[in-house]
Specification:
By secondary structure, the protein is an alpha/beta fold. It has nine helices and 14 strands. The protein is globular and about 65 Å long. The protein starts with a helix and ends in a 7-residue tail after the last helix.
Amino acid sequence: MRLRKAGYLCLLIGLCVTGCSTKIAKEDRMTEQKEEISLETEMIIETETEFKAEETELQIPEEEPAKRIICWGDSLTYGQGGNGVTYPSILEEKTGLEVVNYGIQGETARQIGIRMGVWPMSVGAFEIPAETVPTEVSLWQWGEDPIMMRLGDCAINPCHIAGVEGTLSYAADDNKYYFTRKETGNAVAVLDQTEVETFAAGDKDSSDIIVLFAGTNLPPNKDTVGELIQMERQMLEYLGSERYVVIGLTSKTLIEDVELINESLAEAFGEHFLDIRSYLLENGLHDAGIEPTKKDKKNISKGEIPSSLRVDEVHGNEDFYRIIGECVYRKLKELKYMEEK
């Protein structure tokens, strides 16, 4: 009997020891798991810390500062009537940057885009001679004569045709185009529909600031303004710069729907749009230090730029162009396109 009790006692002690051992083993495993989890967490934290540190060290490259301003347009960019004062010349004076005036009198928005290279001209088949002599050439764009270089060739020359550098010109006496190669070389047979690479087409830079002032010649109306907007969008996309200003139209006499056209341009180009017409109407005479005449007041009441700022129904005088230049300059600063001087 005593032996049996002793056996039970041993069995109970064994079970207790086994249970304790099992419990201890479980606790040990749990401890090990916690340590492993803790170690993994520390590694994750260290990795994240290192990543954040590396991320902090990475610097987002700053936008390349503008080195020049390219002004595209017609006679209002050229500065007709300003006695040498142009809005591009005022911009150059105020910014200290190189400012390129690509304004040619009488050009339409389409012709401006052709000079850019956005809608390339092509030539009919001809041979470029070995010598540097003018050679007659036909020019085509959209299946017709683009009527170029009547009053200037800026942004076109020097150009390239079939890899040969030279100059395109227009002769009014015989109403023909000519190409003159820059240097002597081998004669080159040029195929029909070979494109002309204008100077501007090969001189684009995404860091440029673009000022686009087009649409006065063959102006749109409220029903066709979408065509002008589309052309200007294509020009800006082609030039490849995100720093640009689009100037609205000015002449109420020439462009009956000018207010509606400018509203459409403002909606299309947002903060990039400059309504220079409204500014000239409201502040032009004050900025120029001119006391309004009866005629000026009558002009303003009809929505026309005051005559004291104009030389004709479209073109301005020195004050007109100076004010435009100053307004464009303020717009460029507002858009943060340049460092403060």
